[in-house]
Amino acid sequence: MKQQVLITADEIAAKVEEMGARISQDYHGKNLLVISLLRGSFIFTADLVRHIHIPVAIEFLQTSSYGAEKVSSGQVNIVTPFNKELSQYDVLLVDDILDTGCTMKTVYEYIQKCKPKSLKTCTLLDKPSRRVAEIEVDYKGFIIEDRFVAGYGLNYGEHYRNTPYIFEVLPE
Ligand code: IMP
Ligand code: MG
């Protein structure tokens, strides 16, 4: 596999720290619950919450979408049903990347039905050029072009989630 580094570990660290600071400010005095979407956002979430300096509860939700390797089919399923009572919480949905937006939109609507106090979204990467679903992102890290990327939680095939930087997967 050929790769080209897009975002270095240092650039990611600086951005995540900045996002954590903003979230800490915005949610001061609120009852923040981060709901992190597995598996892609596990590393981003782990770093982000360590830059949140107010009390924060953390839950995980797993989604799956069927389709070819590099393309989301648009049909998103919630793999792990979520039973938490959310009416007391200010929920922040955290994902690794917003591509077509179908994943975030599906989860957003699913969580909205649980009637949280408030609901916002956060993603490290945004590929706006491929958007299909209408969804607002309240906190976004980097806007990227229509490239397939991996590293820092994002996978290519089964691998590269542990790569500390984000790279573009290039054709051989
Ligand atoms: P969406 O439903 O099309 O917005 O896709 C979102 C999900 O697809 C993300 O949570 C990722 O897991 C995955 N995904 C989208 N683009 C990429 C990519 O470039 N690399 C790795 N995974 C991606
Ligand atoms: Mg994902």
Structure summarized in a few sentences:
The protein has 172 residues and is of the alpha/beta class. The chain has helices at residues 9-26, 42-49, 102-112, and strands at 2-7, 32-38, 56-65, 76-78, 90-98, 118-126, 139-143, 149-150, 166-170. Inosinic acid binds at residues 40, 65, 72, 95-104, 148-150, 154.
How would you portray this structure in words?
- With 172 residues, this protein is an alpha/beta fold.
- The chain has a single domain (9-146), classed as Rossmann fold (3-Layer(aba) Sandwich).
- The chain has helices spanning 9-26, 42-49, 102-112, and strands at residues 2-7, 32-38, 56-65, 76-78, 90-98, 118-126, 139-143, 149-150, 166-170.
- The chain has a six-stranded mixed sheet with strand order 4-3-2-5-6-7, sandwiched between helices. The protein has a three-stranded antiparallel sheet with strand order 1-9-8.
- Strand 5 (90-98), helix 3 (102-112) and strand 6 form a beta-alpha-beta unit.
- Helix 1 packs across helix 2 (42-49).
- The radius of gyration is 16 Å and the shape is globular.
- It starts with a strand and ends with a strand.
- The relative contact order is 0.21.
- The mean pLDDT is 94.
- Inosinic acid is lined by residues 40, 65, 72, 95-104, 148-150, 154.
